[in-house]
Amino acid sequence: MSLRFNAISSISNEMENAVPQASAKITGIFGENVFTLKTAREFLSDDAYKSLVTSIRGGKKIDRSVASHIANGLRAWAESKGVTHFTHWFQPLTGTTAEKHDSFFTLKSDGTAIEEFDGAALIQQEPDASSFPSGGLRATFEARGYTAWDPSSPAFIIEIGKGKTLCIPTIFVSYTGESLDYKAPLLKALEALNRAAVDVCNYFDKNVTKVSSTLGWEQEYFVIDEGLANARPDLIQCGRTVYGAAPAKGQQLEDHYFGSIPERVYAFMRDYEQESYKLGIPLRTRHNEVAPAQFECAPIFEDANIAVDHNILLMDVMARVAKRHRLVVLQHEKPFAGINGSGKHNNWSMSTDTGVNLLAPGKTPKTNLMFLTFFVNTIKAVHDHADIMRAAIASAHNDHRLGANEAPPAIISVFVGQYLSKVLADVETRVGTKFDEQDEAILKLDLHRSIPELMLDNTDRNRTSPFAFTGNKFEFRAVGSSANCANPMTILNTIMADTLKKFKVEVDALIEKGEKKEIAIMHIIQQYIVASKKVLFEGDGYSEEWHLEAEKRGLPNLKTTPVALDAMLSDKAKTLFQTNGIYTHSELEARHEIELEKYTKTVQIEARVMGDLAINHILPAAIKYQNELLQNVNGLKSAGLDPSAYGSQLSIVKEVSDHIQFIHTQVHAMVEARKVANNIAHSREKAVAYESIKSTYFDQIRYHVDKLEHLVDDEFWTLPKYREMLFLR
Ligand code: ADP
Ligand code: MG
């Protein structure tokens, strides 16, 4: 029996795994595997604790001697929980996380065995950097790179089976200081935002000394039976199905969204939620998504640095916990053609150490003006750097999703809602006129009451915008489900920092000329609205009209990754990242190189898998079926029946034959095209060549394979079908 039928017949047994565990009270387990400040207070000396706190709050360095005290405290805490090993935990540019475990155990020179964790080991480690992508930043002969402790993200304990490991969040840099990961640039961007935003906040409130960026992500994913997934080499190798005919019932009945959660999935959810709570991941919501077998979870928002770690940690926890339930989580942006894809909406805002959300409308004219300032600066930032934002979310995976019918288009635009559109228009109409007292009326708008009310009303929400204002934050919806949020967050915070810095310079110039502060601010806001108007769009982002309109407005619509990535290397981008201290030119070039390589390799693997499956699964099944039909025809013939009795059989044989011929020729042609592409040395050209292989062959081959799926005897078909993967659990 094929894997497919084995898997189908054993699914009903899997319900045993769905026996729900008794849920612990969340507050009882929340953060129990995290070295929180509360735990630190217990395990650290006064000095060590103080030093840790200052370092977290003010980014101040911790010196080695204090580090040793902290390391001791960390080990004592970890050992009290049965931990034997520790690891520096980091986020290399592969997109996953990396760890190399070392035990606390060591032998002294006289042979005494002891357990130890010293300050040096806490602060710095040297993993073999040569096995991580560097984009040419480091030739193999200087393969050294090191991980450095990031005290602003708390240490935590990962439990795998019975093993427990202390994880120290770190950044990963080359020996010469270039960043080799997602976290180092993110921390730089957050600091750039902090400095720029504090300066602007001080126009309104001198007490603000720190601004942090907040992030609340929403993670979409599919869950399918493990046995079925294992029978799909494409899912195992590419994370998505490269073939599969549309099921009779897909998502057209719209009966999955917010429907009741299937029991087996529910057990899985509760299980991964418990694991997440222990790790301090503040999950809050769970529900079904639009597509069958698609779900979503979201936490309470946090400081962006922590939220990024929590998201990547959650993705890892989900994948591991799913195995216990004999399920597989698909975090790919588009696992199934014709079925909605998965995104990871990044809800983003900024908040001050005085407790103010800078994108929440204020209650007084002054706070209204502060809100308008940050709101308009965001729009300006997106307008000026839409191309870099597009590049930040570009990947081979996400290309399948952006611009498809259920996902925002590849055109970056901003949605602000009716009411704020009107406010912006009001401010704008005052262009050229001198501000006087009566213009302060605009500051008295009832923003704090009107906006939340309007935003609660779902009609003023736009699900088709890649970047939408939702009342007190912007939602970057174009981010893909498998992405590390660090990258989009680095970009967003960098462009915001840059825009705010320029804003300050322009306002100061007016103030110096003798303008009143509020009036100066309004002037620049007004200019910014005029300058960035074309990025605002309130209509249906999925519509054809918008694509035409966007073209008229001159907004870029870059549909594929190799081209979208060009923005990373423009002079504008180089200046932006250099002046804000995020990336040097060579770091930027290295990243660009890595993204291109990732793209090429992904498409290359998919092409190979398509070829393998066609030759080893699809054609043999089709030929087997043909033989059966021919046997039948021969039998009928020898029984003396008239040709009209086997006309249909012969026409199926012919139809199957046509598809076989097509698939065979095209797979062959695709292999030849790959050989040509593989000889291209220049990485952008190579990526473009692979993109062309994808667009020339993938859909065509798939079309014929999917036709065969409809024709061939179900018994012969080895790959689990869409209806099985999406509906059996
Ligand atoms: P809805 O999208 O239905 O309005 P919420 O506003 O509660 O739901 O939040 C959606 C997501 O946005 C959640 O993940 C939440 O944590 C996040 N979020 C809410 N406020 C902020 C904020 N100020 N900064 C960043 N994320 C936020
Ligand atoms: Mg959603």
Compact summary:
The chain is α+β, with helices and mostly antiparallel strands and 729 residues long. The protein is 50% helix and 13% strand.
Structure overview:
With 729 residues, the protein is of the alpha+beta class. The chain folds into three domains: 31-181, Glutamine synthetase, N-terminal domain (Ubiquitin-like (UB roll), Roll), CATH 3.10.20.70; 190-583, Glutamine synthetase/guanido kinase, catalytic domain (Creatine Kinase, Chain A, domain 2, 2-Layer Sandwich); 598-727, Four Helix Bundle (Hemerythrin (Met), subunit A) (Up-down Bundle), CATH 1.20.120. Helices cover 50% and strands 13% of the residues. Strands 9, 10, 11, 12, 13, 14, 15, 16 and 17 form a nine-stranded mixed sheet that branches. Strands 1, 2, 5, 6, 7 and 8 form a six-stranded mixed sheet that branches. A two-stranded antiparallel sheet has the order 3-4. Helix 7 (183-201) runs parallel beside helix 16. It starts with a helix and ends with a helix. The chain binds adenosine-5'-diphosphate (ADP) and magnesium ion. The site of adenosine-5'-diphosphate (ADP) has 15 residues, from strand 9, strand 11 and strand 14.
Distance between the termini: 20 Å
Q: Share of helix among residues?
A: 40-55%
How many strands?
Answer: 17
Q: According to CATH, what is the class of the largest domain?
A: Alpha Beta
CATH superfamily of the largest domain: Glutamine synthetase/guanido kinase, catalytic domain
Choose one word for the global shape: globular
Question: Would you tell me which CATH topology of the largest domain applies?
Answer: Creatine Kinase, Chain A, domain 2
* Largest sheet report: 9 strands, mixed
Rg over C-alpha atoms, rounded to the nearest angstrom: 28 Å
Number of domains: 3
**What ligands does this structure carry?**
adenosine-5'-diphosphate, magnesium ion
What does the average pLDDT come to?
90
What is the percentage of strand-forming residues?
A: 5-15%
Low-confidence stretches: none
CATH 2nd-level architecture of the largest domain: 2-Layer Sandwich
Structural class assignment: alpha+beta
Number of helices: 24
